[in-house]
Amino acid sequence: MSEQARPADWKNYDDFAAGIDHNRLPTTDELIGKDFAISFKDGRKLALKFTARDKVDWQENGQSGSDWCEVINLAPNTYFIDMVFADRPKDADTVIINVSTGRVLSIYAHIRSVEEAAGDPQVEQIFRPGTLDGAEISGPEPAETRDLIGLRAHYTYSPNHVYEHTYLSSTRYAWQNLVGVQRGHGDVDLATTYKFDEGQYIFTFREYLIPVASTFFHDFNEMRSTGKFLGIEGDGSIANNPAGAFIRKASMTYYLPGQEPV
């Protein structure tokens, strides 16, 4: 969608990103010195070794590097690993790992040019379920889910960031800002949801009006959401920003048989 299609008062990514990590879970150094080899269902192989709180050595398909990362302990045995790459500034990889079940999900985000996007959201996401090599695999395989359809929930990221989400279908969600610089603004964007384990969902969305996409781990057992945004700021620079919120379920819509959303 062209820049001219945006409402005149529409905010840029950086206008609302500041402070949106106020209620985020802290990073951890629990994985320093540990390494993982991961095999994904589509054939991708990824090796990770954590050398510092914010540094990971990686190897993938004959390539290797040492780049920035952050690690968050989301739930027992479950980690949110986010990585950006010095030689690929338009890319970021978020890897969710349960070291007990051996289950893994990678959400790889890439910022395309406007021409490449061809009217779709400019930031694309690639989803890859996988497993830890050598682990005794148990529990459900991460897979797309319809579980959140009909849910309306409020996410408090900070005293100045409160958003309402309504999960409309398997491919769309609606949002509106209740508290913050975007108050009164809202939209319907493309979304993908994976179930990771009981009460645990990876929710992602890709916006049309601004070049930004996000990945969030919704833990409905603890009513916490932990995630990040990758996008282009108003001055054209690329930013990978943290975010996190407390969740409050507001309502649920139930559909008659045969009338369920797609």
From TrEMBL:
| Molybdenum cofactor biosynthesis protein F N-terminal domain ranges (all copies) | 9-112
Q: Pfam families, per this entry?
A: MoaF (PF10703), MoaF_C (PF17409)
Residues annotated as domain MoaF C-terminal: 143-251
Q: Where is the signal peptide?
A: none
* Protein name listed in UniProt: Molybdenum cofactor biosynthesis protein F
- Which species does the entry assign this protein to? Maritalea mobilis
